[in-house]
């Protein structure tokens, strides 16, 4: 009956040369971090840098999208100002903070109808 309450202790072997095994145990963590950096963090940083450059060069006539989902056309923009005047409907203009602009929908190409000169 006394053997029922007392468990048998088994000797464990000593881990010899643990230096290489500890490096190999951290290798998956390093690999996961590298994958996360190149797939998630780095592209997001590049996109934020691109958006900052687009906001610096914001000019009249550019179409934008705000954080609230409002699409409009820039009417007034000063480089040193934190606000931009945006037309969201005909004759409806609002002041928008530059930091709330999430996308600049600038098209440098001419519209299809303007490509050809009208014949007289």
TrEMBL record:
Domain of life of the organism encoding this protein? Bacteria
Residue ranges spanning the membrane: these are 20-40
List locations, semicolon-separated: Cell membrane
Question: Can you cite a GO biological process for this protein?
Answer: protein transport
Q: Which SMART domains match?
A: YajC
Keywords assigned by UniProt, alphabetized = Cell membrane, Membrane, Protein transport, Translocation, Transmembrane, Transmembrane helix, Transport
Q: How does it sit in the membrane?
A: Single-pass membrane protein
* GO CC terms: plasma membrane
InterPro entries in the cross-refs: Preprotein_translocase_YajC
Q: What does this chain do? A: The SecYEG-SecDF-YajC-YidC holo-translocon (HTL) protein secretase/insertase is a supercomplex required for protein secretion, insertion of proteins into membranes, and assembly of membrane protein complexes. While the SecYEG complex is essential for assembly of a number of proteins and complexes, the SecDF-YajC-YidC subcomplex facilitates these functions.
Which PANTHER family did the record assign? Answer: SEC TRANSLOCON ACCESSORY COMPLEX SUBUNIT YAJC
Family that this chain belongs to: Belongs to the YajC family.
The record's note on quaternary structure and interaction partners says:
Part of the SecDF-YidC-YajC translocase complex. The SecDF-YidC-YajC translocase forms a supercomplex with SecYEG, called the holo-translocon (HTL).
Record-given protein name: Sec translocon accessory complex subunit YajC
- State the organism's lineage: Bacteria, Pseudomonadati, Pseudomonadota, Alphaproteobacteria, Acetobacterales
């Amino acid at each position: 009956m006394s053997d029922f309450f007392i468990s048998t202790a088994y000797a464990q072997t000593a881990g010899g040369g643990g230096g290489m095994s500890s490096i190999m145990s951290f290798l998956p963590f390093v690999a996961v971090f590298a994958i996360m950096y190149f797939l998630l963090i780095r592209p997001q940083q590049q996109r934020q840098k691109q958006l900052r450059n687009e906001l610096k060069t914001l000019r009249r006539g550019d179409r934008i999208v705000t954080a609230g989902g409002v699409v409009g056309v820039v009417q007034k923009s000063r480089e040193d100002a934190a606000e931009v005047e945006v037309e969201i409907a005909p004759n409806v203009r609002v002041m928008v903070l530059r930091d709330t602009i999430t996308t600049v929908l600038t098209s440098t190409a001419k519209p299809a109808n303007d490509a050809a000169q009208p014949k007289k």
